[in-house]
């Protein structure tokens, strides 16, 4: 009776190993994430720009170049909080800075806020 359990366990461990291996192996070229067409990129950019207009205006926006692509960082602050310890916001899966629209203004009242649009995600 223990043999089927060992086989099942071996299959599960093998599957987990292969999954981790797939995640760690670099895929075709240094860039992470891409659009399926120029039209898809334009459509996304229009929606992203519209969503960003619903946020407070960032005090600073920086594009950080990496060997895998560009990471955009936004800095939001008020005069009263700019010298305090900042808060870093990381978006959820398949999201970017506009996801913080309902929280950002309130968070900025307590401290400055950095928000990052991660590699391979929208933004």
How does this model look, in words?
It is globular and about 60 Å long. With 123 residues, the protein is an alpha+beta fold. A four-stranded mixed beta sheet has the order 1-2-4-3, with helices on one face. It has three helices and four strands, in the order ααβββαβ. Helix content is 37%, strand content 19%.
> Globular, elongated, flat, extended or rod-shaped: what is the shape?
globular
Low-confidence stretches: none
Distance between the termini: 53 Å
Q: Count the DSSP helices.
A: 3
Count of distinct strands: 4
Q: Give the fraction of residues assigned to helices.
A: 25-40%
- On the 0-100 scale, what is the average pLDDT? 80
Elements, N to C (H/E) = HHEEEHE
> Over the alpha carbons, how many angstroms does the gyration radius reach?
20 Å
Tell me about the largest β-sheet.
Answer: 4 strands, mixed
What class do helices, strands and sheet pairing give? alpha+beta
Strand order of the largest sheet: 1-2-4-3
């Amino acid at each position: 009776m223990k043999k089927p359990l060992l086989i099942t366990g071996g299959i599960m461990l093998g599957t987990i190993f292969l999954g981790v291996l797939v995640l760690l192996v670099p895929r075709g070229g240094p860039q992470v994430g891409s659009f399926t067409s120029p039209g898809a990129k334009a459509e996304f950019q229009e929606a992203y720009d519209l969503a960003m207009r619903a946020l407070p205006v960032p005090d600073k926006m920086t594009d950080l170049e990496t060997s895998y692509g560009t990471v955009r960082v936004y800095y939001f602050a008020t005069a009263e909080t700019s010298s305090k310890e900042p808060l870093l916001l990381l978006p959820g899966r398949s999201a970017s800075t506009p996801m913080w629209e309902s929280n950002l203004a309130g968070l900025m009242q307590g401290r400055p806020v950095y928000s990052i649009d991660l590699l391979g995600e929208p933004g």
